[in-house]
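User:
Note these tokens:
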Amino acid sequence: MARMSGRQFDRQIRRRYRRRFGEAPDLPAGPARLAESRKAEIAELAEALAGEHCPAGSIEPGRIARAKRITMSFGPYGEAFDGMLEHKAGRFHLFCNLDRVGRGDAPRARFTLAHELGHYYIDEHRLALAAGRAPAHRSLCDHESPNLAEQEADHFAANLLMPGVRFLDKARAAPPGLAGVISLAKAFGTSLTAAAIRCAAADVRPCAVVKWSWNRYAWKWLSSSTFRARFRRTVEAPEKLPPDSPTARALARQAPPQRGYFQAGTTASAWFPRVKPGEFRDVILIEQAIPLGRFGVLTFLYPEAGKYQLGDSADARTDK
């Protein structure tokens, strides 16, 4: 069979995905647009592997790779990828790019290894690589890829490194906002971005996570409760942020306070353009923003009251 390009492989995966799972148009906003049944399937696979290989303590992706005799190389490979899984002569080999992930044991490196393990353990990905139908996966683990295979591998990695029961036990006991995200990232050895997304995806508390590069909006991830409350479209232009807001200050590269992030109260209307100032949905939010070094800024929003109390108003039902 002829070898496909990465784009052709993505189109094939999408066609199979639609036949099996259908379209999923009404999902919380985020880079990943996977159907709930597919997400559950991948999460179950990842969590089973975590339980089998690392039943207690930190999840070690390298240990899981070695158990499958996947060889690994850590080296400086420029800016082309964070990680790459290659199949040659009947063997799988994993590359981890220290130019982008830092140390081999850094949180970004751990997520990269877990992501590449996703390409191995998700049958469709592994079989296509082994048969020579797909090119080696060159992955950038920024949670921005429109490629369905990359989104599936990201979801696998998050659930491998932060298995459901273990994560929820710690997340429910953690403080709200970035203080909790930071504690969870340390506990599970992940990046702040990965931990924040996991909090939103698990809907531990109502929240919105917005990622910025240093000069533009990148993506957002809404918890299910935020999405159901009809807080959906957010500000996406840095110039529309109030200049004294935590996010604007972080994007201006101001030095954060000792805790490591900026924080202030704000309103829903300041962040969600379809909420009018003063209306009942214009709730008080806590806005926090933390610089991520070369990777930009992460904004974390959550209701000061801890939850939304909007009732069943027609306005709340129709804002999209």
